[in-house]
Specification:
The protein has 170 residues and is mainly alpha-helical. It has one domain. Helix content is 72%, strand content 0%. It starts with a helix and ends in a 9-residue tail after the last helix.
Length: 170
Amino acid sequence: MRWILLLTVLFTTTAATSPKSPFISDIKQQMEADYLALDQKVASCLEQKAQNSLTSILDPWFNQLSKLQMTAVVLVMDQLAMNACFHQQELDYTSSMLNYTAASDDRSYLDEWLTFKKSLMTNKIARGAQGISLQKIKLLAQSQSLSTPFNPDPLLLAIKRGEYSPSTAD
C-alpha cells in the first residue's frame, strides 16, 4: 500500500510540472467517469428511497425523544441509508478527485465537494442530534432494518404536526 502512495506522489509531482500533460488529462477523465458513476448510483438510490416510505419507528428510546431530536435522528438515519447505498461510488470519486487535485493543483473540484458535503449537515440536524450518540442512531437504524434508502417524509410530517406518538406508531 505504501508503494502505491509513493508512486502516486512521484507521478503526480512529475506530472504537475506540465499542467496540460496527458497524465493529468487521464486522471481528470477518470475523475469525471467516477463522478458520472456516482451520479447514476445516487439516482438509483433516490428511486429506491421513493418506493420505501417510513411511517413509524417502534423503539422505546426513539419514542421518548423530543420532536426536534426525533426529526434529527430520522434525518441522520436517512442520510446513513443513502450513504450506504452509494458508498463505493463515492469512495471511487473521492479518490480520483483527490488524485486529480494533487496532480494538477486545481482545487476547484475539491472545494466544490467540501461545500456539498458540509451542506448535508444542516443546523437543525446538528442542534437536534446534539447529545445523541451516532452509534445509538446506527443501532436504531439496524434494529428497524433501515439499511436501504427510505422516504422519511411521512414520519417527519407526523412528528412536525404532533400526530406521532408511541401510541399512534403501528
